[in-house]
Write a structure and sequence with these properties.
By secondary structure, this protein is an alpha+beta fold. The chain contains 11 helices and 38 strands. A hairpin with an 8-residue loop joins strand 18 and strand 19. The protein is globular, with a radius of gyration of 25 Å. It starts with 18 loop residues before the first strand and ends in a 17-residue tail after the last helix.
């Protein structure tokens, strides 16, 4: 099975329990829950901050290849560690002992052994480990400093080995190694000549596709066997997509995601002999196709999925369509996702999602229709107390349709509220409908929370993405500002009590908002965001080096576009900032160096402004450790409460935010 990397990737898309109008008075709305109703204009209690940001009770369940065991992450000493139990048993065995950081991701290498990754203090130099399911025979497989590892293929038919990619030889490039998961013995099987970005194998585990990046060109090379030389099959401008997904089941051609000669990315079969797109598998008129669903047992594509307002499926297989329909009937009012199946497809792992909880995991046996609940991810959450996330849209000042999600506080009339613009990172990413801890936390504190997929966000076609090129602090920021104006025009937001918050690119957007539209915001929270695009572009990690020219084209070239980048770098224009600002940063961040936050703080302090600044020495690009998350969101809550007037949880004096973090 091909894997581009290990990690917990959860797209929280879900169904919701509907609201209804009270019969007696149409002006008074009620929210209906499983066990009663809460009057809409009767504010819910302040929920403890920790309930939103604590580690899940159990999460990231996986099935062993034979379906006889389940594994999951569960806290131990405040860190998420891998646990394993036999299906039907009530007790589990903890097989990892992480104490510094959560286990970042894991998977089953075979029925008896699990592979997982860890970094150190957020440096993102992931090391690979393996352990037996009884907790014995722990082995660090890649004990190399300043080296980052990823998975190319777990070789599911090979019980002893897997293929990994690693930048041990050259920090800029990833070579491919065959590694023994018991001993750590390895051998390089493909050396990166300098232009290969990633690799793909066929269904027999043979390394046959190399995705290339060269300047402003991207493409892929192919070889018929591992004894042959890679030959370029397709090359195109990076602004377009032709992404190999995986081989057809005869190992002759490829399924690809392509937007060549079209705006929305669709799935095709790519003919490797003719070197051209062939059969169209699935397309959607409004959005990019997100991916394919497949059956390895039956060797066929069973469906595709895509995101409009929420996640949707299009099935190409009756068995898979009936499985989905049956599960949704058994688990109503939730988004139902098949997480994985045993190799023989006789056992199925299922997860539900909602915009008001982290859902639950189930074990399902299709033959007997037996459905067993494994665990609630966050059983302490009372969905009746939480807000719905509603898809909305508006037109930008240049008439571009912008989609977003609005989360309004429960029990409060949605008029003249304090509001927070919550800006996603990437920026070539997007927000999705579903449970978002930050949105629910802020809504519980009384804020209207608006997440917008500004131009440059992905999923809406290549034209929408390209409209964001070299528009940091410009049209991309205008879309966010136009969202603020939309909130005000709807009567939802109090124009004097609007804040802006985001991480990574969202942190930059926070700084840009306070700098270039200083009258729009009453305060801002910057979480690991770049502040000076000139320095940011010159401090990227070495393994981003291949993409440097593309980044210059998307963001700006520090030499050719120096005036442009200087113009939109908040750190160079701090004299425009009027509103209070809170900054949080991980000391070991490899993507946005701590120096980005340092220079922003120094520039503000030079003006005599005391900016609260929280630095965590054992974190990187975001705070992974539970206690650090608690510190950050506690400080953020009090900061927003002071400047926007939202609710603040009562705490002892020792827990309150201290200047400087």
């Amino acid at each position: 099975m091909n894997k581009s990397g290990i990690g917990v990737l959860v797209i929280a898309v879900a169904g919701m329990i509907a609201s209804c109008c009270a019969q007696a008075d149409p002006a008074v709305k009620t929210v209906e829950g499983d066990e009663g109703r809460i009057a809409a204009y009767d504010p819910v209690p302040v929920i403890p901050m920790e309930d939103f940001f604590r580690n899940p009770e159990k999460t990231y369940y996986q099935l062993s290849p034979d379906g006889e065991h389940v594994s999951f992450l569960q806290p131990w000493n405040d860190r998420l560690n891998v646990h394993v139990r036999r299906v039907g048993d009530t007790t589990a065995t903890r097989v990892t002992a992480a104490t510094e950081r959560d286990v970042m991701g894991y998977f089953w290498a075979n029925n008896e052994r699990i592979v997982f990754i860890q970094d150190k203090a957020g440096d993102e130099n992931y090391h690979l480990y393996a352990v037996s399911i009884d907790g014995s025979s722990m082995k660090e497989l890649t004990p190399f400093e300043s080296t980052r590892v990823g998975i190319v293929d777990d070789l599911e038919e090979n019980e002893e080995e897997m293929l990994i990619r690693m930048n041990k030889r050259d920090p800029r490039l990833f070579d491919v190694y065959r590694i023994n998961i018991n001993t750590g013995e390895m051998k390089m099987i493909a050396e990166n000549p300098g232009n290969i970005y990633s690799w793909r194998t066929d269904h027999d585990g043979n390394l046959r596709i190399a995705v290339t990046v060269q300047g402003l060109k991207t493409g892929f090379m192919h070889r018929k066997t591992e004894a042959d030389t890679f030959e370029m099959v397709a090359e195109h401008d990076f602004r377009e997509t032709l992404e190999p997904l995986f081989f057809t089941y005869d190992n002759r051609n490829l399924y690809v995601l392509s937007n060549l000669d079209r705006d929305k990315a669709a799935v095709y079969v790519f003919d490797l002999e003719k070197r051209e797109l062939g059969q169209l598998v699935f397309e959607h008129s409004e959005v990019d196709v997100a991916g394919l669903i497949r059956s390895r047992k039956r060797k066929r594509i069973t469906g595709a999925y895509y995101f409009t307002d929420r996640r949707h499926y299009h099935f190409l297989d009756d068995w898979r369509a009936n499985l989905q329909a049956g599960l949704e009937a058994r688990l109503p009012d939730k988004e139902v996702v098949v997480v994985s199946m045993s190799r023989d497809e006789s056992k199925v792992l299922v997860r539900t999602y909602s915009d008001r909880s982290l859902g639950a995991y189930y074990y399902f046996v299709p033959e007997t229709k037996e459905l067993t609940k494994l665990a609630d991810v966050s059983p302490w959450i009372d969905e009746r107390m939480l807000a719905t996330m509603d898809p909305v849209s508006y037109r930008s000042r240049d008439s571009l349709l912008i989609h977003g999600y609005l989360t309004l506080p429960v029990g409060v009339e949605p008029q003249n509220l304090p509001a927070v613009m919550m800006v996603h990172g990437g920026p070539i990413a997007r927000d999705y409908w579903g449970y978002r801890s930050e949105a629910q936390f802020l809504a519980n504190r009384g804020y209207a929370v608006f997440q917008v997929n500004f131009r440059g966000s992905n999923g809406y076609g290549k034209e929408f993405v390209q409209k964001g090129f070299k528009q940091w602090g410009r049209a991309m920021q205008d879309d966010i500002t136009d969202g603020v104006d939309w909130l005000i025009a709807q009567g939802i937001a109090d124009p004097t009590r609007i804040g802006i918050y985001g991480g990574s690119y969202g942190g930059y957007a926070t700084l840009a908002g306070l700098t270039f539209t200083p009258d729009r915001y009453a305060c801002g929270v910057d979480y690991v965001g770049p502040s000076n695009l000139l320095t940011f572009m010159n401090t990227i990690p070495p393994y981003w080096e291949q993409q440097r020219e593309m980044m210059y084209e998307v963001v700006g070239d520090p030499e050719k576009d120096s005036a442009l980048l200087a113009q939109v770098s908040p750190a160079l224009h701090v004299d425009r900032i009027k509103a209070p600002l809170f900054i949080a940063q991980g000391a070991n961040d490899p993507r946005v160096k701590k120096s980005e936050a340092d220079q922003m703080v120094a520039a503000l302090e030079k003006r005599g402004i005391d900016v609260p600044y929280m630095v965590k020495e054992n974190e990187g690009h975001g705070f992974a450790n539970e206690e650090n998350r608690f510190d950050f969101y506690r400080a953020m809550e009090e900061f927003l409460g002071r400047h926007l007037g939202g609710r603040v949880e009562r705490r002892s004096e020792g827990e309150r935010m201290k200047p400087g973090g």
